[in-house]
From TrEMBL:
Family: Belongs to the gamma-glutamyltransferase family.
Alphabetical UniProt keywords: Acyltransferase, Glutathione biosynthesis, Hydrolase, Transferase, Zymogen
A Pfam entry, by short name: G_glu_transpept
Region (Disordered): 580-599
Protein name as catalogued: Glutathione hydrolase proenzyme
Subunit structure: This enzyme consists of two polypeptide chains, which are synthesized in precursor form from a single polypeptide.
Gene3D superfamilies registered for this protein in UniProt: 1.10.246.130, 3.60.20.40
Gene: ggt
Protein species of origin: Paraburkholderia translucens
Database matches in InterPro entries: GGT_bact, GGT_CS, GGT_lsub, GGT_peptidase, GGT_ssub_C, Ntn_hydrolases_N
Record EC number: 2.3.2.2, 3.4.19.13
Gene Ontology MF, one: leukotriene C4 gamma-glutamyl transferase activity
Length: 599
């Protein structure tokens, strides 16, 4: 089957059609042309027929998108052309990226969405959850040692996916278009295919080595080759079922059955885990900074709290920063000390708020942060301060794949969305017959609480806090994803986010500082050098290939006592600044992103 038929008018975007015309067989071209004719009819329909509420007057000159690939940007454009709002566009983009970015976009993963709709901020947590049969020591052997790869590759690494319910809830609550319309572009790309980018193939090749002989990854993705058209007919059918039956189909319908069958005898997720899964609307984390209202991710994200902490401590320390050049050695040293404090708190206090108490208000309190900032000393040697260390989170710096997009509509609504399979292509397990990958989000739990290994040993001093993030049935693993909005006088001023594991926080912080402390235009704020430091490994500053550390800076940092290291990846920020009434979308030059104004 090449074209799903669920009584829906599937409406591909003309540019996608153009590439389909070049690459597909004649029959497909005829079908695509028929779709295009149907699109013209569907788009000609008067807007009020689609709209749930009357359209407000436009507040901005245009809608805008910053997307991690051209297909998702095209999707947003198509959705806006059909009269959709930012939430429709975001949901359609998420489904499109589940097709065109199978390494990170997903149906089988989870994430966070921060929204501004009709002037009110919202946050949707569609993070994965541990299955009911999950146990604290499920990745340890009988000697208490971690079984290598068990929490990252294969069926046991998979947590209950949240993305489809997240998209379903967001679109039902705030979308203007019909559910089927927002699925249509994704179905088109799955059915007729898309051109594979060389970077996607590189990531596939690396991941395939990891999964070889352990999962069915190659049965589905061996043909993912740069420059060729990748068609995913089973995925098209899955999307078609979700389009016609609604988002709960994934959790209670045929797709749920396929997931449970895939797991049976290999993994822990059952039909009951799926039917019980619900994304959660939470109060977003909010704070004042530089005359803006920061709206960001609350727990189980650790990094919304971390972002507010970094921004406020940086402001508290302004006298120390005065006169320092951006990214000079003393500048990096001050930021690194701020990061130490943020990551120490992350380890100690943050977990799934439905499972453990998280003192979010105290951690972002002005007086507390002023006191923490006062501990930072420009002339103190790295690593000597008694910043309480938690567990080593350095493993997170290895993860490369998650994806983010930002979108605003001309009515002033905004969505910042980050979602993930965790590692590249998640666990490498594809749901047979359904054509989508499952996450390895279980690896975001603390899989070996310190001291748990050797029988009879108590947890090491200072590390019992790992308890907050140990595996327990139904618990959500702590996350670093931080989709963020900034409001000025209640109106959207910035939508920003990035992939990058624990570097998400430090990346967003640096770009915001570049924009608002250094007054850089958005493209320059993105292109500037970035670095990363967290509490552990101590005294290590990471740099990146896009903007390698200058020799002189490396020498100065080493003289201060730091170790300087290169890391493979430092973010793929997709952001939209709104200047007055003009959106200024910008995509990270490090990735394949597309920034577009849509009138
Ligand atoms: O939720 C988290 O923090 C991780 N699963 C995110 C991983 C990630 O961002 C990988 N990125 N590039």
């Amino acid at each position: 089957m090449s074209v799903p038929t669920h009584g829906v008018v599937y409406a591909p975007f003309p540019r996608a059609l153009a590439s389909a015309r070049l690459s597909c067989r004649t029959r497909r071209v005829a079908l695509a042309s028929a779709w295009f004719a149907a699109l013209a009819v569907s788009l000609a329909a008067p807007l009020p027929a689609l709209a749930k509420t009357p359209l407000p007057k436009p507040a901005l000159d245009a809608s805008a998108v910053a997307a991690p690939d051209s297909y998702s940007a095209d999707t947003a454009q198509q959705i806006f052309a059909a009269g959709g709002n930012a939430v429709d566009a975001a949901v359609a983009m998420a489904f499109t990226l589940a097709v065109t970015r199978p390494d990170a976009g997903n149906l089988g993963g989870g994430g966070f969405m921060t929204l501004l709709v009709d002037g009110k901020p919202y946050f949707l947590d569609y993070r994965e959850r541990a299955p009911q049969q999950a146990t604290r020591d499920m990745y340890l052997d009988d000697k208490g040692n971690v079984v290598p790869g068990m929490s990252t590759v294969g069926h046991r690494a998979v947590a209950v996916p949240g993305s489809v319910d997240g998209m379903w809830q967001a679109q039902r609550r705030f979308g203007r278009l019909k559910w089927k319309q927002v699925l249509a572009p994704a179905i088109h790309y799955a059915s007729d295919g898309f051109q594979v980018d060389p970077r996607l193939q590189q990531r596939r090749d690396a991941a395939a080595k990891n999964f070889a002989g352990k999962t069915n990854f190659d049965a589905y993705f061996a043909n993912l080759k740069a420059g060729t058209t990748l068609r995913q007919p089973e995925l098209a059918q899955t999307l078609g079922r979700i389009a016609s039956d609604g988002g709960r189909e994934f959790y209670e319908g045929r797709t749920a059955g396929m997931i449970a069958t895939q797991m049976y005898g290999h993994g822990l997720i059952t039909s009951q885990d799926l039917s019980q899964y619900k994304a959660v609307w939470r109060e977003p984390l909010a704070a004042d900074w530089h005359g803006y209202r920061v709206i960001t991710a609350p727990p189980p994200s650790s990094s919304g709290i971390g972002l507010v902490q970094m921004l406020k401590m940086r402001t508290d320390l302004q006298p120390a920063f005065d006169g320092l050049a951006l990214n000079s050695a003393p500048y990096v040293h001050l930021i690194a000390q701020i990061s130490d404090r943020v990551f120490a708190d992350r380890q100690r206090y943050i977990g799934d708020p439905d499972a453990v108490p998280v003192p979010a208000a105290k951690l972002t309190d002005d007086a507390y942060l002023a006191q923490r900032a006062a501990e930072v000393k420009a002339d103190e040697a790295p690593g000597t301060a008694a910043v309480k260390p938690g567990l080593d989170t350095s493993a997170q710096t290895e993860k490369a794949q998650t994806t983010h997009f930002s979108v605003v509509d001309k009515w002033g609504n905004a969505v910042s969305n980050t979602y993930t399979l965790n590692g590249d292509f998640g666990s490498g397990v594809v749901v047979d017959g359904a054509g989508f990958l499952l996450n390895d989000a279980m690896d975001d739990f603390v899989i070996k609480p310190s001291g748990a290994g050797a029988a009879g040993t108590a947890p090491a001093p200072g590390t019992a806090d790992a308890e907050l993030n140990t595996i327990a049935p139904g618990r959500r693993p702590i996350s670093s994803m931080t989709p963020t909005l900034l409001l000025k006088d209640g109106k959207i001023a910035l939508a920003i986010g990035t992939p990058g594991g624990s570097r998400i926080l430090t990346t967003i912080f640096q770009v915001m500082t570049n924009l608002y402390d250094f007054d850089m235009p958005p493209p320059d704020a993105l292109a500037a050098m970035r670095f990363h430091h967290q509490l552990l490994p101590q005294k290590t500053i990471y740099f990146e290939p896009y903007h390698p550390v200058p020799d002189e800076l490396a020498a100065q940092l080493k003289a201060l006592g730091y170790t300087v290291e290169q890391q493979p990846f430092n973010g793929d920020v997709q952001m939209i600044r709104v200047n007055g009434t003009t959106p200024e979308p910008a995509s990270d030059p490090r990735g394949a992103g597309v920034a577009r104004l849509i009138r």
